[in-house]
Amino acid sequence: MTRIKQSENDSNIESRKSQQRSLKRRTILSGLIATVGVSSFASAQQTTTQEQGTTTQGGGGGNQQSLVQAAEQGAQQGADSVEDSLSEDEQQAIVEGATQGAVQGAVNQNVNVNVVQNAAFGAAQGAAQGTVNQNANVNVLQNAAFGAAQGAINQNANVNVVQNAASGGAQGAVQGAIANQNANVNVVQNAALGAAQGCVQAGVTNQNVNVNVLQNAALGAAQGAVNQNANVNVVQNAASSAAQGAVQGAATNQNVNVNVIQNAALGAAQGGVQAGAANQNVNINVLQNAVTGAAQGALQINQNVNINVIQNAALGAAQGSIQGAVNQNVNINVILNAAAGAAQGAVQAGAVNQNVNINVILNAAAGAAQGAVSQNVNINVILNAASGAAQGAIVGAVNQNVNINVVLNAAQGAALGALRAGAINQNVNINVILNAALGAAQGCVQSGAVNQNVNINVILNAALGAAEGAINAAAGAPDVSPQEVQAAALGGATGAVEFASVNQNVNINVIQNAAADGAQQGVQAATTGASLEEIQQAAEQEGQVDGTQQPDEETQEPTAEPEPTPEPTAEPEPTAAPEPTAEPEPTAAPEPTAAPDNSSA
């Protein structure tokens, strides 16, 4: 009898709690209807869809089922779909945020109730999943759900796309906020909004992309974009561009794992917001294209690559290309290709050399991207120079105890030199460009690891001279192979650094010209049928000897020492709350490539 009474009491308590929650939700709905106005949604039509996403049944117009009610229903279903129980406060915050965000996103859009309901469902589900076994603040949950639902509203998108974009955006923003517990809720909201929005836009363009790709791209982008020091406009744009770039990269490379996709988006967004926080006047178009290119480039290598390599390659590439664009009036295609090439090269080298430290990966990508930003050079030259420079810097660091500033400067110098020569010798094969940059960076890192007393300015200029000299010489020797050019650049860079280690007061112009002359001598040896080893030795010897002589040709101005790249995982200290959200200006997305086969969710 006592058990029966206890059961009845428990049932009554739960019933009262349910009534209280329903009353709260009705209050929310009333407030939303009063604020937004039912008339805003009068033209919305209710339909039934055969897709897997949540649907709203029923015919007729908005009088029978308002978008507000559809949003609330979807939000409640989404929160309930996560098995781990939420507290009443968490449940209420998530449902409220997802409902309000979906309704806000539908304002001034002729949007179907199914889109609204699925956006709310996905946002609530993602926020709930993000807090599983975690202690997330209810304000974080509410704002993550709000931003994701708002960003996912897009009438042209399939409801599965909407739902998964919202889910990934909310979950990523919650996870990012848990890792950065001082993050302002405006940052959290904008990270979720941008990630969901970018993912839906990419899903509309690439309609056959699997929804798991979309969800993971949004998740990584939102998580990486949570950064307390960055303006919310930077946060939103970084998240959006990272999601778009990751989806576009996955559309090109269909066999890529969703964990790889998530980490490419995470790293690219993280690099974007870190660079945006350091350069607060950064142009949003520069930021968007740097982040898009970094995420896209990191997904072009179809190999078994560690996700830390993916993340840090994308991070460094985004960061470096933004830094390279500072104080330059440079085309956004240049930015995109510099970032894409650097990320692609870093991932490719990281896949082959799996024991390389991730700081090496990050700084190689950053230096290569920064050095590859140049206005008057063909974008194919930019992409390949960046790729080769990143690869070479990483290969040079294998089994070496090398300073990451050496890695960064070698990559930057090699890319710079390859661009200079590529701009003059426009008919040179891009494989020559890539291999010259690779050899120059590799030689400088290897020699810099041995000769640790050498200044990083020496490293940068030796790499620059070797890459430039090798390409200039190869332009006049079309029968020389890219591998022979690489050996010549490697030898020229090595010889110049070794000379500078012994003669530390020598002008860096002398170093640059010694490296160039050494590389040219190596290419000359190649024309006589010398082996790769003989080519490298000839270039190295010339670089060492020529450093003792002032070259006849006019020397170039020294290259400014670059800023060191920050550590990949360190989170910035919190600062004052950022400014209110501003809608970003749209940037033209890169041309889509062939879409993958259609896959079910």
Automatic annotation (TrEMBL):
Signal peptide: none annotated. It comes from the Archaea. Residues 1-17 have a biased composition (Basic and acidic residues). Residues 45-55, 69-79, 538-550, 590-601 have a biased composition (Low complexity). Residues 81-90 have a biased composition (Acidic residues). Residues 1-24, 42-90, 538-601 are annotated as: Disordered. Residues 561-589 have a biased composition (Pro residues). This is Uncharacterized protein. It comes from Haladaptatus pallidirubidus.
